[in-house]
Write a structure and sequence with these properties.
By secondary structure, this protein is mainly beta. It has no helices and 11 strands. Helix content is 0%, strand content 50%. Strands 2, 4, 5, 6, 9, 10 and 11 form a 7-stranded mixed β-sheet that branches. The termini are far apart.
Length: 127
């Protein structure tokens, strides 16, 4: 059974930092693009960041560029999202997602291209 489990969310003051983790189990994701998405109350899910299977390519939403960093450890089947300089508008449920295994390296913003999803972890940024 394939599972993605996020952790590291919580309550933080504006300007603070959090590090999210997404641990995958049930199969290896070392050849899968991995992404982070978020959904705030009353809003649609939006792309946050993605990383290619090699880690050589990353992509970020404009709203988090320069503040968030995505990384991965394929030996641990884990992807991370380091979030710095957090703002109240970053408040949302953050979910990680995994794409299919491919031999070529790529990043992906479209949620429909991901096939496995975690349940999400709440991030709340107070002003």
């Amino acid at each position: 059974q394939v599972q993605l489990v996020e952790s590291g969310g919580g309550l933080v003051q504006a300007g603070g930092s959090l590090r999210l983790s997404c641990a995958a189990s049930g199969r290896t994701f070392s050849r899968s693009v991995m992404g982070w998405f978020r959904q705030a109350p009353g809003k649609e899910r939006e792309f946050v960041a993605a990383i290619s299977w090699s880690g050589g390519m990353t992509d970020y939403a404009d709203s988090v560029q320069g503040r968030f960093t995505i990384s991965r450890d394929n030996a641990k089947n884990t992807v991370y999202l380091q979030m710095n300089s957090l703002k109240p508008e970053d408040t949302a449920i953050y979910s990680c997602a995994a794409g299919p295994n491919y031999n070529y390296d790529y990043v992906e913003r479209r949620a429909t291209s991901y096939i496995y999803w975690g349940q999400g972890t709440q991030v709340t940024v107070s002003s």
